[in-house]
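Retry 2 of 3 after timeout on previous attempt. Resubmitting structure tokens to design endpoint.
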């Protein structure tokens, strides 16, 4: 495999302060194609800046515009025998609203512990921990 074979993607741990009480909440997306819960993310367009792609994917999947924050660890794994690299950032939801779409049929805003428990992949749970560390909340 060459570096050119790598699937490049980006996403965010999207967060907000709850409209009721102000507690920290993390947004998870449900993808019906995989029947899983994950952070909003997606493949980058050719030549697209990873942060711009992450913010685009967040808005496409959740309906929320986001203000980027701290970079988070990059996830690396294989998909159908090809390497995949997903760059992540913390991002605060600043405005928007969710409308179900073909890729994402539901979102949940959950406290960090509940979000961590709901996520389908262990690598996504590790991102919650890294996010909390980046915000100095651990």
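Retry 2 succeeded. Sequence:
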């Amino acid at each position: 495999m060459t570096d050119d074979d790598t699937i490049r993607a980006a996403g965010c741990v999207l967060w907000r302060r709850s409209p009721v009480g102000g507690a920290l909440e993390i947004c998870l997306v449900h993808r019906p194609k995989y029947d899983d819960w994950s952070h909003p993310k997606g493949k980058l367009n050719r030549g697209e800046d990873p942060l711009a792609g992450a913010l685009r994917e967040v808005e496409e999947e959740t309906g929320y515009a986001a203000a980027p924050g701290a970079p988070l660890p990059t996830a690396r794994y294989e998909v159908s025998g090809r390497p995949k690299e997903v760059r992540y950032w913390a991002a605060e939801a600043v405005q928007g609203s969710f409308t179900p779409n073909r890729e994402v049929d539901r979102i949940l805003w959950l406290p960090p512990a509940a979000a961590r428990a709901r996520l389908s992949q262990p690598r996504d749970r590790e991102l919650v921990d890294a996010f909390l560390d980046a915000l100095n909340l651990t």
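Attempt log closed. Residues 3-134 form a domain with the Nucleoside Triphosphate Pyrophosphohydrolase fold (CATH 3.90.79.10).
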